Amino acid sequence: MDNISQNEKLSTIVKALDSKRAEDIRIIEIGDLTIVADYFVIANGTSSTQTKALAEEVEFKMSQLGIEPNRTEGYQGATWVVLDYGDIIVHVFYKETRDHYNLERLWSDGKDIDVKQFLPDEPQD
């Protein structure tokens, strides 16, 4: 299972977040800016319970692919859960915490990747 492409990983992460109704899912390509990772995936929940559920769903779906995080942080307070998959780091925030830290602004030199390519077409209401 170790031959899973970054696109497959990103797709799995985004779909997991979307399935649990994550808000404002963003993918930022940061590989040219840092050796930390190639991508950040950022999303938020509207409660600490949802935030934790979002992170758990990502972990569950990735482990079904045989991929476990190198590190996880933040499950205790569940206001900012980090799942470190090496090349992809997932940040799941509680909404207010996300607004406060504003990673998107900190990493604004990164390249925004269109999340829609990883989601099934949904009817617009």
From TrEMBL:
InterPro entries assigned to the protein according to its UniProt record, in alphabetical order: Iojap/RsfS/C7orf30, NT_sf
Keyword set includes Iron: no
Any one biological process term the GO annotation gives: cytosolic ribosome assembly
Lineage: superkingdom: Bacteria
GO molecular function list: ribosomal large subunit binding
Entry keyword Acetylation: no
Keywords, comma-separated and alphabetical: Cytoplasm, Repressor, Translation regulation
A GO term from the CC aspect: cytoplasm
Compartments, as annotated in UniProt: Cytoplasm
Subunit comment: Interacts with ribosomal protein uL14 (rplN).
Chain's role: Functions as a ribosomal silencing factor. Interacts with ribosomal protein uL14 (rplN), blocking formation of intersubunit bridge B8. Prevents association of the 30S and 50S ribosomal subunits and the formation of functional ribosomes, thus repressing translation.
Entry's family note: Belongs to the Iojap/RsfS family.
Matches recorded under NCBIfam families: rsfS_iojap_ybeB
Protein name: Ribosomal silencing factor RsfS
Gene that this polypeptide is encoded by: rsfS
